[in-house]
Design a protein that fits this description.
CATH superfamily: Winged helix-like DNA-binding domain superfamily/Winged helix DNA-binding domain
Number of helices: 3
CATH class: Mainly Alpha
Oligomer: single chain
Order of helices and strands: HHH
Number of strands: 0
Helix content: over 70%
Distance between the termini: 35 Å
Structural class: mainly alpha
Number of domains: 1
CATH architecture: Orthogonal Bundle
Shape: elongated
CATH topology: Arc Repressor Mutant, subunit A
Strand content: under 5%
Length: 56
C-alpha cells in the first residue's frame, strides 16, 4: 500500500499514472488506496478516542 499512497498523496499523481508506473490496473490502485485509508483509520481510532475522553 505504501508506494501507492506515496505516489498519490505526496507526488500527487493521478490513478492512471500510478497504474502505468506500477503496471497494475487502475482498480488495483483504487482498492490499495481504500485499504490503506481504512488501515490508517483503524490504527488512529484508539488514539483519537482516548483524546476525546481526556478532553471531556
Amino acid at each position: 500500500f505504501r508506494v501507492v499512497v506515496l505516489m498519490h498523496y505526496f507526488e500527487e499523481l493521478p490513478y492512471r499514472d500510478i497504474a502505468e508506473a506500477l503496471d497494475i490496473p487502475i482498480g488495483t490502485v483504487m482498492s490499495r488506496l481504500s485499504r490503506a485509508k481504512k488501515r490508517l483509520r483503524d490504527l488512529l481510532a484508539p488514539a483519537l478516542n482516548s483524546q476525546e475522553l481526556s478532553e471531556s
